[in-house]
């Protein structure tokens, strides 16, 4: 599994560092073809679907039982790491290969999947792969979206050999999925900090993203007394501090971040009159997230009012949290218990393909630690021992669901 | 005086708004030549000096008495207003013209001056005009400095007709100046706020300018819990708020401003790890200014330490305050009293040519209100009534010092 993972990272190896493997590009196509080939070697029925996802099926004897899907995404961000998405793809494929070799035909069909795209790193749209499988994405969107070079998603699809003309809006949609299980790196430091090897995801957080525009009065820094100012940056600074305080008081799992702040025409001898900053708020609970947001914005308006500033807020994104399935999560925990992998429950603060599946079937995610929490970088790394532990946990759970019987009540 | 001021604004009128009249350019040369011509019409002996300053002399009968110099600068910032500098130049020239016509030869020589450059808007150096007259600038600097187009100050000087080769480092230096009096717009809102027509400047503030670099750890905004962050922007925000608070507590005339703040690679879903901001601190009292600075920086370091951030501070500028002369200032106040112009004392938060003269001779500044405190902008404006009041005040004081006798004790 580790060798295959290393090999996969050579597709799209970027001379400027890390891996750059973008949807429908040459390196992407080569990677997906290599996976099909490997899956076939492992004895799985493997093929592309209409939009470029790759499936590797291990058919079960009881065809009435809905299949369990397991995998992740094959694309990367620019100069990304070797593990984000790729780990889940390779581990699921190798897990099915191992199970077939060791146990033969399962009762329930198991399918490994390499989703064509998740990151939104080439076109301004994410989850193109899992979105098509679950029905959240449609081909109509492909003609409207273009990459930075002006190539539309539709053209790129065709150039890569996926001509879905005449197949309707959802040519890759799958009905009747029994469950979805995704193995992924944490992309955070909590597992490391708590000395745990396996993370069982409770939910994928919802997100609210806003842009806040604060206007005051730009003035001469020397001739304007402190009491006569309408300093937009001093106001924004108070708002940034308040955001942090309120998030700390709210406690985990809420996070709130000001990641961008720009002072318009910022000059060292001018009192700033125009500042824009972003708010990124995440929580596993939708009402809690909204309430926090409303409370925060109310207080930001109070700050603006007190300081004689104007404030304008625009909501850019509102995605609801997606809870993972308790039954599958408990099974993952039990597997860890059985082989003495220290595990803990935690939310996923980042989006994943699993959030597309959560609303339509029982879903779960298994995390392994990320060294220093680094991701989306060539420095992304997970120790081999942890990669193996995650793999073994996945194999154990897939065995239960594919070959065992107790899973039939769960999913 | 108002007509001549309006006429002067036509030299360098900028199609994009306001006035752009930069040192040694064609419009600058035309403006200075027009001033020489007008001065001659008014009966003043007028000529360029070696670096391009223009003087208009009204010789006094008692040549042992040191001359009183009065004027301002003829250059502007890009898209500047019609009054900043130009008002003092025109008013001083017209004042001498009026005094000569009304009273003939003074006892003490009076000279109007149009300094060639003060703003630093073409070359990275300010006060080229008053600096040469007082000895603070030297020709050696001219070869090292270039404008954005790459033309050196030396080349620009020569192209404008000022070839100072062989004249030594300080070809325009003047010894034995009795006093310097400058009329200028306030570029602030204090006079307006306090319903005063004339401002008598107590001192030109000193300035300390610093750049502060705060480093933390950039991290995923979703997967990094609030308690595990080293957020450089949250830290900088606390520092900005503290700067404002400390300045408010210190009280006038101290001002402290964060005019620029940049989040390196700021992205809405990344906790910022690298922020740089500027500090601009001004006060009329040098020890107070330094003490405030030391206290502030100490507290900024405490904030950084508490938050696990590193902080690096670089001092970019340290200019000492320059006190104006009490005797001249009292004479200005008395003049205002005599003609019922409401006046007040206030510091100048902006730099002026007067700060070059303060250390070498008794100096004073007279301010008139700026509508909405606006300057360095086409929207810069002062009501005609206030321009006239300032002019009349200047005339009154010049009369006392030039024709009267009581001034002889003062300067």
Automatic annotation (TrEMBL), chains A, B:
InterPro entries, per database record: Amidase_Cbmase (IPR010158), Bact_exopeptidase_dim_dom (IPR036264), Peptidase_M20 (IPR002933)
Alphabetic keyword roster: Hydrolase
Keyword Hydrolase annotated: yes
EC number: 3.5.-.-
Molecular function per GO: hydrolase activity
PANTHER family per record: ALLANTOATE AMIDOHYDROLASE, ALLANTOATE DEIMINASE-RELATED
NCBIfam families linked to this entry: hydantase, PRK09290.1-5
Sequence similarity: Belongs to the peptidase M20 family.
Protein name as annotated: Hydantoinase/carbamoylase family amidase
Organism the protein comes from: Paenibacillus planticolens
Source species taxonomy: Bacteria, Bacillati, Bacillota, Bacilli, Bacillales
């Amino acid at each position: 599994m580790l060798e295959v993972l290393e090999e996969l990272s050579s597709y799209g190896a970027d001379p400027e560092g890390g891996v750059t493997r973008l949807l429908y590009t040459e390196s992407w196509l080569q990677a997906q073809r290599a996976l099909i080939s490997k899956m076939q070697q492992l004895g799985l029925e493997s093929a592309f679907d209409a939009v470029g996802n790759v499936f590797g099926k291990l058919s079960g004897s009881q065809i009435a039982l809905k299949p369990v899907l397991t995998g992740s995404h094959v694309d990367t961000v620019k100069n990304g790491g070797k593990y984000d998405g790729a780990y889940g793809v390779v581990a699921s494929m190798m897990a099915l290969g191992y199970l077939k070799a060791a146990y033969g035909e399962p009762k329930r069909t198991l399918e490994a999947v390499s989703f064509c795209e998740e990151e939104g790193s080439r076109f301004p749209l994410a989850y193109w792969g899992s979105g098509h499988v679950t029905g959240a994405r449609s081909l109509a969107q492909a003609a409207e979206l273009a990459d930075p070079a002006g190539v539309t998603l539709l053209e790129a699809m065709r150039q890569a050999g996926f001509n879905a003309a005449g197949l309707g809006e959802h040519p890759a949609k799958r009905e009747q999925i029994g469950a979805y299980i995704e193995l992924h790196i944490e992309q955070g430091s909590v597992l490391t900090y708590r000395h745990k090897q396996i993370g069982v995801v409770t939910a994928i957080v919802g997100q609210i993203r806003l842009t806040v525009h604060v206007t005051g009065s730009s003035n001469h820094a020397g001739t304007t007394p402190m009491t006569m100012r309408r300093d937009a940056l001093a106001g924004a600074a108070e708002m940034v501090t308040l955001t942090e305080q309120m998030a700390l008081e709210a406690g985990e799992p809420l996070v709130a971040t000001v990641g961008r702040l720009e002072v318009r025409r910022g000059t060292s001898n001018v009192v700033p009159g125009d500042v824009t900053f972003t708010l990124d708020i995440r929580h596993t609970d939708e009402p809690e997230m909204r309430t926090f947001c409303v409370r925060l914005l109310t207080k930001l308006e109070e700050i603006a009012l007190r300081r004689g500033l104007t404030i304008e807020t625009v909501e850019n994104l509102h995605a609801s949290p997606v809870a993972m399935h308790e039954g599958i999560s408990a099974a993952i925990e039990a597997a860890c218990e059985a082989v003495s992998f220290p595990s803990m429950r935690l939310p996923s603060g980042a989006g994943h393909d699993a959030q597309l599946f959560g609303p339509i079937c029982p879903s779960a995610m298994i995390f392994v630690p990320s060294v220093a929490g680094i991701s989306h970088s060539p420095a992304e790394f997970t120790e081999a021992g942890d990669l193996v532990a995650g793999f073994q946990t996945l194999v154990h759970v897939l065995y239960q669901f594919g070959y065992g019987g107790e899973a039939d009540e769960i999913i």
